[in-house]
Amino acid sequence: MSHGSPTSILLNIGHAMDHWILVVFAYSWGVIAGVWGVEWTELTPFNYGALFMFGAGSIVSGRLGDHWGRWIMMVIFFAGMGVSALIIALCTNKWQIGAALTLMGAFASIYHPVGIPMLVQKAKNPGFTIGVNGLAGNMGIAIAAGLSVYIAQRFGWQAAFIIPGVICLICAVAFVALVPREEMAPAKRKAKMLDLPPSVMARVFAIMTFTAVTGSIIFNFTTNGNGELLANRAKNIAQDPAMLATMLFVIFSLASLAQLVVGKLIDRYPLKNIYLPIVLLQVPLFLIASQVEGWALFVTAIAFMLLVFGAIPFTDAMIVRYIDDRMRSRVTGVRLAIGFGVSSFVVALIGPLVKDAGFPVLLSVLAGVAFCSFLALSMLPSEKDVHAIATAPKPAE
Prior knowledge:
Elements: H1 6-36, H2 40-43, H3 48-67, H4 70-89, H5 94-108, H6 111-120, H7 126-155, H8 157-178, H9 198-233, H10 235-238, H11 241-256, H12 258-266, H13 271-289, H14 294-310, H15 313-322, H16 328-356, H17 359-377, H18 383-391
């Protein structure tokens, strides 16, 4: 499908809305805390349910996407995200919002195992397609980070959820009207890729899953914690909510562009050759960020977010390279469940950990996590070797 088709446009909008609504709470909890008379550090654990369901629900979402079909699952996604966002806006205490966020996380779990495989199943340049989709998703984070604080301050925190919720409901109607239904569920189609030996598949899946965990930890910490990081260590320039919102929008917007470049590179070069340096460069940047403040921190944050966002397309690209479309939703669902099941603890603990250890210690830990990713990726078999194994004559029985 072309990038300008209604299907492609709505799937990319879906990625933006998925990340937008998922992080609104993280960029509004300062305002909510003021309204409810609590500290923002008390609210972060109540985001755990949303992120846990975002991961755990992906197993169910992926299975349903392959067996029911991806069209109907995307309709459920848009409608569910819209309704759950409006329910969150009705909450009056932290226990209610925790439950409503968990419901939202269950619907949010649909997009990645369903929407991305649907988008790339007929793509001529899957790397660039994934890059454009990643840009859309991270622009959703940029919009949330840039607008949520302003909307919450100006119109009340409820409006920060109502606006994207209404957009999702409009998208649900548009998806039904403009996107043609698929003729057959993916799981019922014939195989189109060569089967790899179980040992090779196990190795690839293990590396894919491990890097999904480490990547999700880094992604969730930075996307949910950058606001408080700047507010804490760049107080002289980020005291005004409008200034903080502008800084966050600039960071996430510029970082999102990295995915277009990475997407182009993925279509031309082996994944491992591009992925390894991107992950390795995160290590010194996190260490630098742990030691600087003010404008230096702002510039460093742009640099490490370029690499964090630049690393995002690789797991989906690995799935396209190694996994047949019949089961991509299920494989994506499993790796998301494991990755976000672990990393969801990170966001829940942001408040308590910052209170006890401080941002410098946590940024140093992220440097260690990035280095672990580098070590795991160095063991990924080359695509040339994988192709040779897949095409080698089978021994006669």
